[in-house]
């Protein structure tokens, strides 16, 4: 079976694209899926993150940067689809970048992380438009919103409701909360599960991974 491809995209910077990619990719790796993370952001955050790991406790997925190839990376990806079970593409935030468009041409699933605040909700219109255009070309593509950095408060709950009621893009059930464990895991070149398997952060990441596995009908690792 060729690898399932997941594109994590949103033109909005700071909405947790890299965090989602790394935690989800790491979760697949820990479940036994042979996992490749492709860092398409010229800032190289995903690649630097994984390089923080100690040699004897490597990041649980392979991470490579293909950012200099820009949209040509989809040709390069063809070399990897037979060797991996799942490939995640961490897209850059640039609005006019051709990279998310290219990634969505080859993806099985597109995940749009959104912080439940109004500026993120407003900006998500652009990501929705891109998803709709991509789905006309790549008819098998599924796209979902993912709530990231959820926290307590009326404005966050109200924005979550608004995203949930979006008529075009469904919302994943799993929710990623704002927790210290997420940035802490970067310091050790690991994921939240690498810090503690029983933490609340680990539970929500595993729930997300299981939900994506179901949507993609991935076979057991
Ligand atoms: N669930 C979370 N809890 C706490 N901090 C988070 C969480 N998700 C992301 N962050 C932090 O928010 C910032 C933006 O996240 P990042 O994944 O880099 O966004 P993007 O890739 O979309 O630009 C980073 O500093 C990251 O460590
Ligand atoms: Mg990023």
Automatic annotation (TrEMBL):
Lineage top rank: taxon: Bacteria
Protein name: AAA family ATPase
Source species: Noviherbaspirillum pedocola
Ranges of residues in domain CobQ/CobB/MinD/ParA nucleotide binding: 6-191
Listed SUPFAM superfamilies: P-loop containing nucleoside triphosphate hydrolases
A Pfam cross-reference name: CbiA
């Amino acid at each position: 079976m060729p690898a399932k491809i997941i594109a994590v995209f949103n033109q909005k910077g700071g909405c947790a694209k890299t965090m989602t990619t790394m935690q989800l990719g790491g979760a697949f790796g820990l479940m036994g899926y042979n996992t490749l993370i492709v860092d398409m952001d010229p800032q190289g955050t995903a690649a630097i993150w994984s390089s923080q790991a100690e040699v004897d406790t490597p990041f649980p997925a392979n991470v490579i940067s293909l950012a200099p190839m820009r949209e040509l990376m989809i040709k390069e990806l063809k070399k990897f689809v037979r060797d991996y079970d799942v490939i995640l593409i961490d897209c850059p935030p640039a609005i006019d970048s051709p990279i998310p468009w290219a990634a969505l041409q080859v993806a099985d699933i597109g995940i749009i992380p959104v912080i439940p605040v109004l500026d993120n909700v407003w900006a998500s219109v652009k990501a929705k438009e891109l998803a709709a255009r991509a789905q006309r070309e790549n008819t098998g593509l599924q796209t979902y919103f993912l709530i990231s950095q959820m926290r307590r408060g009326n404005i966050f709950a109200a924005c979550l409701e608004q995203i949930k009621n979006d008529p075009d893009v469904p919302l994943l059930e799993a929710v990623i909360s704002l927790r210290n464990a997420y940035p802490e895991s970067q310091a050790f070149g690991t994921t939240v599960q690498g810090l503690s398997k029983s933490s609340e952060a680990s539970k929500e990441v595993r729930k997300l991974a299981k939900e994506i596995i179901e949507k993609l009908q991935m076979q057991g690792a």
